[in-house]
Design brief:
Helix content: 40-55%
Number of strands: 3
Strand content: 5-15%
Radius of gyration: 37 Å
Low-confidence stretches: none
Structural class: mainly alpha
Distance between the termini: 94 Å
Oligomer: single chain
Strand order of the largest sheet: 1-2-3
Length: about 190
């Protein structure tokens, strides 16, 4: 999933920037106002959040994106989550890596999709990577709980069982004929009457 999102994102960005030359034309109406191409170079995160002209911020955002991708990738590898979680993680990783390549190549993320409504013009542009990141993050946040087969929890603690002795219990010795097995403490240990 991550690979598909990454390839689709990069192919569309190449088409828009290098073939359609949207970075020079700036606007192309496709199905106005529902879908248009509006070029925007985003130096921040989604919707320009944390945008800055400072070169250091570009590298900070690249490092954050790579750290998130690494963390999610390790989590998927270790936890073996459900198929839904794996797809969500793939969407997030593919989108984040697509935007990382933009920051490395252009110095900013190439945003070009713009959707508006009649009578309302959306001021923001976005790209396929942004859609994938949003859907992946929402999928991981709203992740349905997994049911693990065969694991049942007890509601009350189990009662401890008495430990079984491994040594055989001594057998009572047969008493001599004529002697009574009295335990009235009238005889001492040697069997003499007191």
């Amino acid at each position: 999933m991550a690979g598909l999102v990454f390839l689709l994102d990069q192919a569309l960005k190449y088409l828009v920037v290098h073939v359609l030359r949207l970075d020079q034309v700036r606007e192309i109406d496709v199905i106005d106002p529902w879908l248009n191409l509006r070029m925007a170079w985003n130096q921040g995160m989604n919707f320009g959040l944390f945008a800055s002209d400072v070169e250091v911020m570009r590298w900070v955002l690249i490092a954050i994106a790579l750290a998130v991708c690494l963390w999610v990738g390790i989590w998927v590898g270790r936890a073996k989550p459900s198929r839904f979680a794996q797809v969500s993680a793939g969407l997030l990783i593919g989108g984040a890596l697509g935007n990382v390549v933009d920051r490395l190549t252009y110095g900013a993320v190439a945003d070009f999709l713009n959707m508006s409504l009649p009578g309302w013009r959306n001021p923001y542009s976005f790209n396929v990577a942004d859609i994938a990141i949003f859907l992946g993050a929402m999928g991981l946040v709203l992740l349905p709980p997994e049911k693990k087969p065969g694991t049942k929890r007890r509601k009350t603690p189990a009662k401890p069982r008495p430990a079984k002795s491994r040594a055989p219990e001594p057998r009572p010795q047969p008493e001599a004929q004529g002697e009574l097995g009295l335990d009235d403490k009238t005889r001492d240990e040697a069997g003499n009457t007191r």
